[in-house]
Amino acid sequence: MPSISGSSTLRLARRAWMIAALLAAAPSFQAQTPSETASQQSSQDTSRDLKPVHPGDNGKPIVPGAVPQSYALVIGIATYQNLPASAQLHYPGRDAQAIYTTLISEQGGQFPASHVHLLIDSQATQANVMHELESWLPSVTAPDDRVLIYFAGHGFISGGSGYLAPYDIDLHNIAATAIPMNTLGKLIGTSIKGKWKVLLTDACHSGAITPETDPQQLNQLLLDMHQSIFSLTASRDREQSFESADWGGGHGIFTYYVVQGLQGAADANGDGVVTADELAEYVHTNVRQATNSRQNPTSERGSFDPNMLLAFNPDRVKSAPQAALDYGTLIVQSNMDDTEFWLDGKKAGVVSKSAALRLPGLAPGSHTIKAVHLGYEPDGPREEMIYPGQETTVSVRILIPRRRDQGAIDLLDEGVQFYKQGLESNYRKAEAKLNQAVAVDPNYSEAYMYLGRVEDALWEDEKATAAFQKAIAIDPDYEEARVSYAAALLDQGGLDEAVRQLNAALEKMPNDGTALYLLSQAYARQGDFAAGKQAAIRATSAAPGNGEGHFWLAECERHLNEAAEAEAEYRIYLKQTNFNSGALGNANYYVVGFLLGMGKRHHAAQQDIWREQQGQANLGICDCEWLQKRNEAAIPFCEKALSLMPADLWANYRLGIIYIDQANARAQTVNTASANAGSVTDLLKAARTRFANVVTVNPDTDEAGRARKYIAQIDAALASSPHP
Description:
Largest sheet: 6 strands, mixed
Radius of gyration: 28 Å
Strand order of the largest sheet: 2-1-3-7-8-12
Number of strands: 20
Low-confidence stretches: 1-65, 205-213, 221-227, 319-324, 581-597, 602-607
CATH class of the largest domain: Alpha Beta
Structural class: alpha/beta
Mean pLDDT: 79
Helix content: 40-55%
Number of domains: 3
Shape: globular
């Protein structure tokens, strides 16, 4: 979408509502069909956010000029639809989530979040996996890109050929329902472009699903798929790949060390970069040691670049190279359940009273540890020494409830009250109170979180970001602060970082409905409507009464050309939010319904977000009816949308197209000399009014350009009509 000049206009357009496909002007009044519209939607930015795209959202280089654009497909299947209980696995889903988190981390792969597609369990059907391999990756990759594919699940042999097992594999029809390894190799080697290609597979588990499966042959097939690929498999020969709760709270041992390696542990020379060779050596050494040589990861060196950059952690850059040393293990015990443990500034896992956290594969030397529990003073940060080849046990103790200065508590309460009243004047008062609160108590994470919300409402982006980051730095397990920060990032356009924050929050609270619908919104605004749909489905399951989940599910389904399903979700949203905004008093929808309206804001309540929400949902239904070629049913919803949002560009544009559709239909069924010809003229005049509104709202958009062409055609038709 083109940008709009003028910061005030940009502010009012910041919320991204993916409404309606764009129509190309044609010599006649013929509008596009729904199928043509769906095709066009897939090839262009359909966001209604009219602000410029932030360059950082498209991926930033790890080292200037060193790393190309990066894409990844991450698959983890623990439960299979058609396999017996004995063949089900435990941790591939957690493994895939850990890989995903590491790839999008700024202390790991630094992949743009929108460039990493994650398929877990029922999402990883054969059709979905093949779509990613045959359509998505070939369509987005370029010859100089970095591409990574990760698979955790079952692999097997049938008829002498190797296969990876998708969620819906049918053992009675393997050839038609599995993923052939030779096909995967050909796609990676030819259709999927890139100068650095990585394949990580953890597919040789116990409980082989066909008698023919031979781990030695399976691993060799994975290694031999294409010489230009860096292929790292979980085991070799006739070994199986182990998974256990002993590694990071529950992982496959191979994936556990891949994650540790990518986060920087594999960086043998201390330059901050993890190369292919470094990762292979680190994973092989540690898995072999941890399993007493029962499992030996294997890499095929082939013709790939051994120095290909897989990850970069700037925090680990050292002034001089370090010698390769044996790694040590840290075992963490806690006196309190649900204690988050942080190692060298990064979350390493959760430890409870009854289950210690085992962290192997650590470089010898001093490490910074910290244990946190919301509402308590942390244990640490402090230094703990790790010795080569040894286990070190450390006990963390969460003992002291965090004590607050009563003056700071009172100031927070006053600030929150002002914040909830809405309007700029009250936000300013809240800002002053909350700044006083953190001055009295610099470790008051809750006050910083509310200060972030207030600054976000005032469009003070830098101040909001600083406040949210401070709240999270004080309490890294403050899930609500991460979700609030993500909502502010959505307002600012920082979609990738919003995904990172939501992902971190969902690791702690996987069924947080608010975090899930915000994640759906982030994916939708990035154009990944399939991922957005999955997140929205989880949101509506976790919090069925939260209308926002249904709204974003509708948005994603409509862009996937699932018009009937989308319309049903829009109607659910309207039913759940059918209240009078006037009853909200001075508090606008953003304030009263912060957990319903996060990720959208308006300056000091200048525009009622409730009305906009209702308008957007009605416009969505109008578009769904139009997609289903039911123009008469669509019109009342577009009209309702315009009654709530009279100046909405998209509602005017869509209604103009509908009137043209109707004029075309009437013109084909009546004689232009008849009395009915007047209705065609009336429809064209109505369409012209709508297109003129589009130009008035914003003359610089593509839609305005098309609207001008329609207006010229309509004027020419009306001028030649015998029934003006």
